[in-house]
Amino acid sequence: MPYVERGEREKLADYINALAVDIVSQLSKGHGEDISRLYRAALVEMADALIGAESGAKIPDSTPAQRLASQVYDVARSYGYKSAWLVDFNYSITRLIQIVPRQMVQNGSWKSEFRYWLYAMTVGAIEQSALDIRAKRVPSGAEWAIDGLFGVLVDIKDEYKRRVNTAYEAMQIKKSGDAYDCPFRTELLEIRDKMGFIDGYQEVMKDFGARTAEQEKGE
Do 189 and 127 lie in a common domain? Predict the structure, then answer.
C-alpha cells in the first residue's frame, strides 16, 4: 500500500466508513456471499466516477461510492499531478475490505473477520472489477486512468494475500497440519520472544526430498 499521511486518512475516513456501512446494511439482510457483488458494484462505480472526472465530468454524489470517489479525487489535488488520486484510491479500498467484515462481526452477523471463503470472494471481486474496468472505453487521453486503476486493484489483491491471507494460512497450518507434502515446499519456523513465547512464524524454503535422501544415506 502506498504511504498516505495521517491528515489525508482523516479526510477519507468518514467516506470510507459510510460506504462500509452501506455494504454492511445490504449484507445483513441477505447472504454473506453477496459481498462479492457489492464490492464489485462499489469499485466499478468509483472507477466510473474517477475516469469521468479525468474526462472533465463532475462526479455525482448520490451514492456512498460516488461520494468516496469525489473525496479521493479532491484530497489528491494538492499533489499537483493527475495520477495522485490512485494513492488514495488504493488506501480507501484497502481499508474498506477490512472495515466491512469487522462491522459484520460487531453487529453479530459473522463470528470472524476473516475466513477463507471471505478471502476468495474479496479477491475475486477485486480482480473481476479490474477486468471490468480494463474493458471500458474511455475518451482519448484518459487511457492512463484505466491502466492506473487496473494496476491499483491488482496491487491491492496481491497485498491482501501477502499481508493477511498468508498469516491466516500459517495459523491454520499450525492448527491442523500442512496440506502440502511435495518435495519442494516452504516450512514454518517458530519465532520466539525474549521470554521464550512464540511471537510468530516465518517461512523457509526447503527441499524435503534432498533431506530424506541424506537421512537414508545415514541409515
Answer: no
- Condensed to tens digits (0 to 9), the pLDDT of residues 70-112 reads 999 999 988 888 899 999 999 999 999 999 999 999 999 999 9
What is the pTM assigned to this prediction?
0.91
What backbone phi and psi angles, to 5 degrees, belong to 168? -60, -45
- Report yes or no on 1 lying in a domain: no
Q: Tell me: do 80 and 17 sit in the same domain.
A: yes
- 181 CB-side CA count, 13 A: 2
Q: Within this chain, do residues 195 and 131 fall inside the same structural domain, yes or no? A: no
Same domain, 203 and 132: no
Torsional class of 200: left (φ above 0), alpha (ψ -120 to 50), beta (otherwise): left
Q: What is the mean pLDDT of residues 5-34?
A: 91
User: Is residue 71 a part of any domain in this protein?
Assistant: yes
Residues 188 and 163 both lie in one domain: no
Using CA atoms of 99, 14, 64, 112 in order, give the dihedral in degrees to the nearest 10: 10
pLDDT of the residue at 140: 78
Question: Residue 102 is placed in which grid cell?
Answer: 469487522
Residue pair 138/51 in contact (Cβ under 8 Å)? The answer is yes
Residue (of 77, 70, 75, 73) closest to 18 by Cα position: 70
